[in-house]
C-alpha cells in the first residue's frame, strides 16, 4: 500500500493547466532554488582540480562536503525557529545573503582549510534558504500544493543536473570560477526575491529549537529518518568519492554528473509518482535501495567504462528514493510538516557529512573498491529498516495523511 500522497500522480494533470502560470514571486523563489541546489554538486567535477590547486589530498578536499552537510544537519534545528519568528521572506533573504558571501569567499581561499570553513558557512545559508523555499512556494503558488511541490522538485532536479555542468564549464579555466559564478547567481536570486516576493503569513505557533528532536519520538518518522540516514551515506559516497575514482577532466566529469542529474530529475518528478501509484511507496523504496546497492557494487568492481555507466544510472535510483523519502517524512507523523521535516533532515544529513570523510579514509586503509562495498551495505541497511518497520511506516502514514493533506506549511530540504 502506498504511503505517498494519493493525489500526487494527479499533480501532472493539475500542473498541466496551472503549473506554468505562476506569480512572479513563485518563479523568483523557484529560480533561486535551482541555483541553491546547484551548489550541492557544483564542486563534483572540480574536486581533483581543487586538490591539485591547493596541494591537498582527496580526503582533505572531500571535507568540502563534510563541513557543508554537518552544518546543514545542525542548522535543521534552527531554520524553523528562525522562520517562525522573522517570516519566510526574511529567512530566504538571510540564507541567500550568507550563500553569496561564503560562496564568494570560497573562491578566494588560499588553503583547503579556509575553503572547508567557507563551505560550512555556505551550508548554513543554504539550509536557511532551501528549508524555507518549499513553504513559500506552496503558500504563493497557483494550482494548489500538488503543482507547487512538483515545481519545487523540478527545481531540485534541474539544480542537481546543472550544478556539475556549471562547475565543469567554469572550472575548466580555474577551480575558483564556479564559486564566484554561484555567488553572482545567488545575488541575482536575492534581488529577484527582494523585488517580487511579499512577506508570507507567519505560523500561528512559533517553533522551538528542540521541537524537531521531539518529533523523532514518533516511530514512523524515526524509522524514515534512520533508513534515510543509511541511504544518504550511499548517495554521498557516489556524489563525493566517485569523481576521484573516475579521474576525468572537469568537462568529462561534468558531463557524467550532468547525465546523472538528468536521470535524477526525470525519475524524481515523473517516474517515482507512477511507480508509487502502481506498486506502493514502500515496495518502490525497498526495491530501489536494493538496485542502488547492486549499482554501486558494479561501480566499484567494474572497469572505467562500467564505473561511468553505473555513476549515471545511480541517478535513477537516487531520484526515486529522494521523492519517496520526502513524502514519507512529510506524511508519516502527526507533527507539523516543517517540524517533522526538520527532525528527519537533522538525522539524515549527518550521513551526508560522514560519507565524504570516511570513503577516502576507507580507501587509504584498504583499496578503492571497499568504500563502494560499504555504500552497498548501507543501501541494503536502509531497505531492511523499511522492511522491518513497514507497519509503522504504513499504518501511521494512513492515520495522519488527511491532516497533512490540508497543511500548507511545508518545509523540506530534499535531495
From TrEMBL:
Swiss-Prot/TrEMBL keywords: Membrane, Transmembrane, Transmembrane helix
Molecular function (Gene Ontology), one example: transmembrane transporter activity
Sequence ranges assigned to domain Major facilitator superfamily (MFS) profile in this UniProt record: 25-394
Subcellular location per the Swiss-Prot or TrEMBL entry: Cell membrane
GO CC terms, sorted: plasma membrane
Membrane topology, as annotated: Multi-pass membrane protein
Pfam family, one: MFS_1
Chain segments annotated as transmembrane: 26-43, 63-84, 91-108, 120-142, 149-171, 177-197, 218-241, 253-272, 284-302, 370-388
Transmembrane helix found in the keyword field: yes
SUPFAM superfamilies to which the protein is assigned, alphabetical: MFS general substrate transporter
Name of the protein in its database record: MFS transporter
Amino acid at each position: 500500500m502506498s504511503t505517498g500522497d494519493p493525489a500526487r500522480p494527479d499533480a501532472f494533470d493539475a500542473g498541466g493547466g496551472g503549473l506554468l502560470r505562476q506569480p512572479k514571486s513563485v518563479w523568483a523563489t523557484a529560480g533561486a532554488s535551482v541555483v541553491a541546489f546547484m551548489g550541492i554538486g557544483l564542486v563534483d567535477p572540480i574536486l581533483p582540480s581543487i586538490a591539485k590547486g591547493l596541494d591537498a589530498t582527496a580526503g582533505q578536499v572531500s571535507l568540502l562536503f563534510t563541513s557543508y552537510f554537518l552544518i546543514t544537519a545542525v542548522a535543521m534545528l534552527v531554520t524553523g525557529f528562525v522562520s517562525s519568528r522573522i517570516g519566510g521572506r526574511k529567512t530566504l533573504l538571510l540564507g541567500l545573503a550568507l550563500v553569496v558571501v561564503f560562496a564568494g569567499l570560497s573562491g578566494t581561499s588560499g588553503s583547503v582549510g579556509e575553503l572547508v570553513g567557507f563551505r560550512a558557512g555556505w551550508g548554513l545559508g543554504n539550509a536557511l534558504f532551501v528549508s524555507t523555499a518549499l513553504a513559500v512556494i506552496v503558500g504563493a503558488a497557483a494550482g494548489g500544493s500538488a503543482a507547487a511541490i512538483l515545481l519545487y522538485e523540478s527545481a531540485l532536479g534541474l539544480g542537481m543536473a546543472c550544478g556539475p555542468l556549471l562547475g565543469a564549464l567554469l572550472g575548466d579555466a580555474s577551480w575558483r570560477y564556479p564559486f564566484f559564478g554561484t555567488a553572482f547567481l545567488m545575488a541575482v536570486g536575492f534581488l529577484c526575491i527582494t523585488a517580487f516576493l511579499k512577506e508570507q503569513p507567519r505560523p500561528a505557533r512559533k517553533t522551538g529549537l528542540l521541537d524537531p528532536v521531539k518529533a523523532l519520538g514518533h516511530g514512523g518518522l524515526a524509522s524514515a529518518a534512520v533508513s534515510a540516514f543509511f541511504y544518504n551515506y550511499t548517495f554521498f559516497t557516489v556524489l563525493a568519492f566517485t569523481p576521484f575514482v573516475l579521474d576525468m577532466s572537469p568537462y568529462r566529469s561534468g558531463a557524467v554528473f550532468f547525465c546523472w542529474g538528468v536521470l535524477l530529475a526525470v525519475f524524481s518528478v515523473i517516474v517515482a509518482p507512477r511507480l508509487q501509484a502502481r506498486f506502493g511507496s514502500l515496495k518502490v523504496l525497498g526495491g530501489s535501495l536494493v538496485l542502488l546497492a547492486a549499482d554501486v557494487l558494479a561501480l566499484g568492481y567494474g572497469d572505467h567504462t562500467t564505473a561511468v555507466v553505473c555513476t549515471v544510472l545511480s541517478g535513477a535510483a537516487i531520484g526515486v528514493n529522494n521523492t519517496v523519502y520526502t513524502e514519507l517524512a512529510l506524511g508519516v507523523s502527526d507533527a507539523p510538516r516543517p517540524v517533522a521535516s526538520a527532525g528527519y533532515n537533522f538525522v539524515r544529513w549527518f550521513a551526508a557529512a560522514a560519507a565524504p570523510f570516511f570513503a577516502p579514509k576507507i580507501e587509504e586503509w584498504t583499496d578503492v573498491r571497499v568504500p563502494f562495498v560499504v555504500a552497498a551495505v548501507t543501501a541494503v541497511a536502509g531497505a531492511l529498516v523499511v522492511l522491518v518497520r513497514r507497519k509503522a511506516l504504513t499504518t501511521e502514514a494512513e492515520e495522519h495523511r488527511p491532516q497533512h493533506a490540508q497543511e500548507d506549511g511545508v518545509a523540506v530540504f530534499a535531495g
